[in-house]
What we know:
This protein has six helices and seven strands. It is of the alpha/beta class and 200 residues long. It has a single domain (4-196), classed as Aldolase class I (TIM Barrel), CATH 3.20.20. Strand 1 and strand 2 form a beta hairpin. The chain starts with a strand and ends with a strand. The structure holds iron/sulfur cluster.
Amino acid sequence: MTITYKVKNGIYVNMTNRCPCACTFCLRQNGDGVYGSDSLWLEREPTVKEVCESIDAWELDQYDELVFCGYGEPTERLDDLLKVAAYVKSRYKTPIRINTNGLSDLINGQETAPELRGLIDTVSVSLNATNAQDYLRLCRPKFGIGSFDAMLAFTRACTESVPHVVMTVVDVVTSKEQQEKSRLLAESLGARLRVRAFEG
Ligand code: SF4
């Protein structure tokens, strides 16, 4: 079972397969391994202790970043993620990032951005579309049409609790015009846009 894996000079943490979306471009729908690692599909969710032990197996201070990412949506296990983040902060200097679909508030049934304060250094939110209809069509969230606005609200709230907030769009599913609109939208929330390459 692959709990942690290396990408460039970062260590990625894979804690769950769960996700409320079914994005048309998701890696989960395109094979069962990325970046040359073993399958990231977890046969069961690792415990907090197992995740911490897996992180300890790397010399983490040698790496640029610890990233909660993986096949599923990390905030599906937000409480456990924050326990791991607190452990990492107590032992290492490496900055911590969460790659998320931004639906944490809907998943957890409460406002969650304030909980990240002091534990998470960067939040990277998948934007992927510039309006609620396109977002619904592309990401197919189980929470329906309100998901887009909830994702924007979470992102804005993160800018008050987290030092770096980034929004991403995938290059192959967005036109240059959409990317420019996305940039303006991200900046209106206090975030920065990153156009990322499709990796599926
Ligand atoms: S939010 Fe991420 S993990 Fe979930 S379906 Fe979309 S791309 Fe896949």
